[in-house]
Amino acid sequence: MTVVDTETLDTAPGDDDRWRRAVGVGLAAYVVSRLCVLVGAAVRASQLTIDARADNEPEEGAVSLITSVLTSWDGRWYLELVREWYPTEIPPSVTYDDLEARAAFFPMYPGAVRVIDTFLPGGDTFAALFLNFVLGGLAVVMVGMMARRVFSISVAARSMVIFSFFPGSFVLSFAYSEALLIVFAAACLLLLVDEQWLLAGLAAALATATRPNGIAVVAACVVAAAIAIRTRRQWSSLISVLLAPIGFIGFQLYVDDTAGESRAWFRVQREAWAEGTSFGTTAIRNTFTFITDPFESPAGALTALSLVALGGMCWCAWKRRLPLPWIAYSAVVIALMLIPETVTARPRFVFTAFPLFIAVAAWWPDPSDDPDHHRASWDRSGWDFTLVMCGAGLTGLTGLYAVFGAIP
After folding, report:
1. pLDDT band, very low/low/confident/very high, at 289 (cuts 50, 70, 90)
2. Which alpha helices (DSSP H) does 3-121 contain, by range?
3. Per-residue model confidence (pLDDT) at position 9
4. Distance CA 252, CA 262 (A)
5. Degrees (nearest 5) of the Cα angle 133, 9, 378?
6. How far is the C-alpha of 157 from the C-alpha of 87, rounded, in Å?
7. Residue 196: phi, psi to the nearest 5?
8. Contact indicator for 84, 77 with CB cutoff of 8 Å
9. Does residue 146 contact residue 188 with C-beta atoms inside 8 Å?
10. Which helix (H) or strand (E) holds 346?
11. Greater confidence, 163 or 282?
12. What is the dihedral of CA 334, 340, 344, 346, to 10 degrees?
C-alpha cells in the first residue's frame, strides 16, 4: 500500500494538450466566478449610493464601495496587521473594539501583502486584493494538479470548475488568508503523494503559519509518514512531520515575545473573539433553528446548508477513494470547523476542505464513459444545474456578507 495507487494516474499520449485545455477551462470558470463576487459586492455598493442620495450625503465612488466590501470582516484585521504589524502590548480583557485584537490573526498573508505592497503601486488594499486574485487562480490550478495526479484530466477539469464556483470561494476575492492556505496545503498534499518529504514539510510549515486550521496539514504528514514507514520503512518521511508544525509554533512564540506575555494568542481568541468549544452542539442548534424556523436567522440557514453540502461531499469521498493523507487533512479541517462555539459550519470552512471537491468531481459521471450516451444528457443537465446554483449562491453569499447579514 502506497500513499496513492499509481494505476489511476492519467498518462496517455497527448495529455499535455488536454491538460492545457483543462487548465484553460478551470481558469475561465475562476474568472466568471469572480464576476459573481463582484456582482454581489456591486449590489451592496448600489444600495449605499442610493441611501447616500436619499440622505443628501456625499457619494463614494463605485470602486471604493466595492473595495470596502472585499476588505470587510476579517479583512479589516489583516489590513491592520499590514499597517501596524503585531501589538507590543495587549490590554487586559481585550475586546473586539481594541485594535490589539489583531493578534488573533496569523502572519503569512499580511506579511505577503506587505512584501507585495513595497513594489506594487496602488496601496496596501490593492496589494491585498490583487495578491488574493493571483493566489486564487493558482489554487484553482493546484486543485486541478491534485485531481490529475490521482484520477484523470477530465476529473481535474471538473474539480477546478466546481472549486471555483462553490459559494465559499468568495474568500478568494476578499482580503482573507484562505487563498494562501489552500496554495500551501495543496502543495503539501501533492508533495506527499510524490513522497517529497522535505518539500512537503516546508510547505506544511508555511501552511500552519497562515491560518489556525492550517494545522490540518500536520495530520496529513503524520498519515503519509505512517504509510511510508509501515510499507517501505521509509523513515525519512518523518522529516515532513517534524517540519509541519513549525509555522504554528513559531507564530505562537513570536506573538508571545512581541506582546510580552505567554499564550497571548489564546487569550485574545478567548476574550476578544469569545471563542470556546461546543464540539458540534452549536452546529446542531443552528441547524435545528433553521428546520423549525427557516427565516429566523441566516446563520442557521448557512450552517444547515453547509452541513448538507459537507455530507454530500463526504459521501463522494467514500465512493471515490482519495489518498489517506488528503482524507486526514479534510477530517481535521471539518473537526476544527465544528468544535468552536461561536462560529461553526460555514461555506468558507467547507471550502478549505478542498480535497473533497476532487472527490465530487471524481464521483460525477463522465459522459465519455457511457458510449451509448443514455445518461449523458441527464448528467450534463445535473452538472449545469449545480453550477448555476453555486453561481447564484456565490453571488447571494457575497451580498449577504456585504450587508453584514451573517458572520462569514
Report:
1. confident
2. 15-54, 62-70, 74-84, 108-119
3. 42
4. 9
5. 70
6. 44
7. -95, 85
8. no
9. no
10. none
11. 163
12. -60
